[in-house]
Structures are given as structure tokens and as C-alpha cells.
């Protein structure tokens, strides 16, 4: 019995000791238990990403334009982590709140655009487009016009390189602050801006309320009516969508 206990506990203790050593070396104040649960979360995210990868390959890689754009994006960011690029930009900008960068899984974007009836007749403005993966997906798979607005120059420069290389017509990126960029021509806007503070969301809501009547505004986690004058928007739909960090409510509202 003792031998069996030793066999099981021996390696476990060794793992525990090496974790403790590593944490001490890195100066991290974390118990091995907390560290293990973080590793577990990481493992879960890896599995979710793997499943998402296969779903994307099966469902959308038949579209050659998207396949080329997505492979270009993957190669371009092979050694340049978008999370790090975004973090570096925020630090250099002197932001106090360094939020984590995130992307909408394409299968979720598929659900969102179906629920919101986005078609090839639409001109979608993606407000805070990140490295542009969702914008590329909408322009190639849905065939709509897309303008991605993003304030990290590195993301925009790289997305522009792909547009040029693949001679894409119905997509462009604008480097700048979404609060200041001209949204003329938009029939729909997608705002996954969980990182925006309340003051910025309010400013954005006031700006979006001035768009032509009937413009679709899709927001993640919060409805715009909470931030604009009463009667500026009509909430059409609310539904739940999976993001890598968990489920979130998505709101479709139209400008009144
Ligand atoms: C959560 S990511 C979403 C990326 C992409 N829309 C998606 O769904 O996969 C938000 C992006 O918004 C950008 N962003 C945040 N505030 C912005 C602003 N005021 N103007 C332009 N871009 C902004 C960030 O740099 C980041 O890339």
C-alpha cells in the first residue's frame, strides 16, 4: 500500500515542487493550486480553439478568397502575437487600463450575422476591428462591404498588406479612433468593445444615434439604449453567443 502511495504521490509532489520553484523564480505570488487551475483554464481554451479551427476549416475554407486571407493572417501573426501587439500599443499610449485583446470566433460571427440578417447588400463598419479576421470573413464569405476601424497601426498596416496582395475590392481598414472616424455609408455597425469604459460607450452611442434611421447596430455585452437619449435606438433582438471567455449577450438595435 505504501509503495502505491509513493508511486502516486511521488510525481505529484515533484510537479508541485517544480511549480513552486518556477513561481518563486518569476516572483509570482500564486499558490500551486491557483497555478494548476490557471493551467486547466488554458487547456480548456486550447481545446475550444482546436474545435473552432476544425469548424472554420470545414465551413469556410471552401471559399478560396477567405482561405487565402485567413492563411495570410495566420502566417503574418505566426511570430507576432496580436495580444502582445495590442498590449504594447496600450502601454506606449500610456493607458492605465491594459485590457486583454480578444476576437470573435468566426462560428459566433456567423450566428450573429445570420440573426441580424447581414447580407451582401450591407456595408458593415467593424468598430475596433483588431487584426481584421472577422472583417475579412464578412467581406469574403458574406460578400458585404466592410470598413474596419482600428486604432492599433500595426494591425491596420498588416491588414492593408493582405488587401493589396489579394487585390480585395470590398474591404478597407481605417486607422484611427472609432469615436472620431466618419461612419458615412454604414448600414450596419459591429461593436465588440467590452474593453471600452462607460464614458467612451456613451460618446459612441451619441455618435451612432446620428446615423440614418434603420442603421443596424450590433453590440456585445451591453445595449446602447442604456447610454443614449431615450428613443434613440429600438432594441430588435437579444441573443446569447459563445466567446472564448464564455457566453455573452449580443444586442441588435436600430437607429430610430
Ligand atoms: C475586443 S477586440 C475585437 C476585435 C474584433 N472586432 C473581433 O470581434 O474579433 C477590440 C478592438 O478594438 C480596438 N479599439 C479599442 N478602442 C478603440 C477605439 N477607440 N478606436 C478604434 N479601435 C479601438 C482594440 O485595439 C481592439 O483591437
Describe this structure in words.
With 256 residues, the protein is of the alpha/beta class. The protein folds into two domains: 2-60, no CATH class; 67-255, Vaccinia Virus protein VP39 (Rossmann fold), CATH 3.40.50.150. It is built from eight helices and seven strands, in the order αααααβαβαββαβββ. It has helices spanning 2-26, 32-60, 64-76, 82-92, 106-115, 133-142, 153-165, 198-209; strands spanning 123-127, 145-150, 171-175, 188-191, 216-220, 233-243, 246-255. It has a seven-stranded mixed β-sheet, with helices on one face. S-adenosylmethionine (SAM) is lined by residues 86, 101-104, 126, 128-130, 134, 149-152, 177-179, 192-193, 195.
The biggest beta sheet reads:
7 strands, mixed
Number of continuous helical runs: 8
Count of the separate structural domains: 2
Shape: globular
Structural class comes to alpha/beta
**What is the mean predicted local confidence, pLDDT?**
91
Quickly name the level 1 CATH class of the largest domain: Alpha Beta
Write the layout of secondary structure elements.
Layout: H1 2-26, H2 32-60, H3 64-76, H4 82-92, H5 106-115, E1 123-127, H6 133-142, E2 145-150, H7 153-165, E3 171-175, E4 188-191, H8 198-209, E5 216-220, E6 233-243, E7 246-255
Parallel strand pairs: 1-2, 1-4, 2-3, 4-5
Antiparallel strand pairs: 5-7, 6-7
Helix pairs in contact: 3-6, 3-7
Bound molecules: S-adenosylmethionine.
Amino acid at each position: 500500500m505504501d509503495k502505491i502511495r509513493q508511486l502516486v504521490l511521488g510525481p505529484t509532489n515533484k510537479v508541485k515542487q517544480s511549480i513552486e520553484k518556477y513561481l518563486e523564480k518569476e516572483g509570482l505570488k500564486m499558490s500551486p493550486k491557483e497555478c494548476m487551475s490557471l493551467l486547466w483554464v488554458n487547456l480548456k481554451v486550447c481545446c475550444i480553439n482546436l474545435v473552432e479551427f476544425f469548424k472554420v476549416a470545414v465551413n469556410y475554407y471552401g471559399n478560396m478568397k477567405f482561405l487565402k486571407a485567413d492563411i495570410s493572417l495566420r502566417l503574418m501573426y505566426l511570430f507576432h502575437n496580436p495580444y502582445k501587439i495590442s498590449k504594447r500599443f496600450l502601454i506606449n499610449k500610456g493607458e492605465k487600463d491594459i485590457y486583454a485583446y480578444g476576437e470573435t470566433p468566426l462560428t459566433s460571427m456567423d450566428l450573429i450575422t445570420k440573426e441580424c440578417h447581414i447580407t451582401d447588400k450591407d456595408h458593415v463598419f467593424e468598430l475596433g476591428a483588431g487584426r481584421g479576421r472577422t472583417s475579412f470573413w464578412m467581406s469574403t464569405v458574406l460578400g458585404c462591404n466592410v470598413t474596419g476601424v482600428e486604432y492599433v497601426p500595426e494591425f491596420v498596416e498588416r491588414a492593408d498588406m493582405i488587401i493589396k496582395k489579394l487585390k480585395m475590392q470590398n474591404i478597407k481598414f481605417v486607422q484611427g479612433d472609432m469615436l472620431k472616424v466618419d461612419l458615412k455609408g454604414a448600414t450596419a455597425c459591429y461593436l465588440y468593445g467590452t474593453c471600452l469604459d462607460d464614458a467612451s460607450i456613451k460618446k459612441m452611442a451619441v455618435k451612432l444615434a446620428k446615423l440614418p434611421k434603420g442603421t443596424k447596430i450590433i453590440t456585445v455585452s451591453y445595449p446602447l439604449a442604456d447610454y443614449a437619449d431615450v428613443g434613440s435606438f429600438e432594441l430588435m433582438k437579444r441573443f446569447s453567443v459563445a466567446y472564448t471567455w464564455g457566453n455573452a449577450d449580443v444586442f441588435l438595435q436600430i437607429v430610430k
